[in-house]
Amino acid sequence: MPFSKLAIESLLTNGFGFLSQTFGSLMAPFYYIFDPTKRLFFLYLLVSGIVAFAVVFVKTKTVDSVFKTLFNRRVWLHPSSKTDMQLLFFNSVLRFVIFLLVFQGSLSLTKAVVRLLNQYVELQSPWQLSYGSMVAIYSVVSFVALDFSRFLQHYLFHKVPFLWRFHKVHHSAEVLTPITLYRTHPVESLVSGVRRIAVVGLVSGVFVFYTQSLIGAYAIFGVNAFDFVFNIFGSNLRHSHIWLSFGPINHLFVSPAQHQIHHSRALRHRDKNFGFAFSVWDKLFGSFHQVRFKKEFVIFGVQGETHRSLRQALMAPRTKPTGVANPIKVRIRDNIAVDPGA
Question: How is the chain split into domains, by residue range?
């Protein structure tokens, strides 16, 4: 039976609506520089650029050398960087879906946690704290909980061979730029979304139950104040060739140099420094690796896993891992050698 006029109009409307949303999602990365929730927000990049300029200038003493280092063609035009960019746009559609799932999922889980606590916990009276104190506590707890969850997911994606098949896409980057942050397999992105739903939902549910009120985190430009501080103070240098160590503070906060060590192919650096904001998790799990102010020579990437195209990156999980954990081997000739900060 032929479609009715109404059915055809419905199909066309829904079809064009889907295409419009898809196109909008594909264009989203162009607006990241205006979005404080993204690491590529212009203010984060600007501050990181200023820090990088200062770090390199102290070492080279000439502005010309600084610009040659910061805008190294061998880094920005490397095939690995092109794959970063391709995954950034390819995953942008998925991120739109994940955003909707996280928002709705976290809200639903929060309600479920509150119902469960109401059923099994007898609350004598809500927490007797000022609203400002509750918001401050919630901001800290949610930030720490999310940071630990990111660490744990990262740890498992290295230690479980099946999960490493997906995470190796990120580690196959042969050079690091701020865009390398978005070099992730879609499956890992989905797992990250589910993890965030669980953490935000559980933490929010507990706070709503014990405070008997709806609260949120202290925000700067709509971003958790702690996330904002983390992003603005050199977070984009984590994925870069600029060596910046925090010295003794590395024992508390993860420095860009520590994360660059995490991307190193050297066996002595294998499965080290999984942390994002706090390095205390690495110390508890025995994966902490201290770095010095003086730069180390580091080669990035994974042996036999270059992934220099979008297709290779997406099909990477079909390649069986060669080891129980991160199958990194030292073989310099297969990868470009980039001396961080040099």
Answer: 39-334
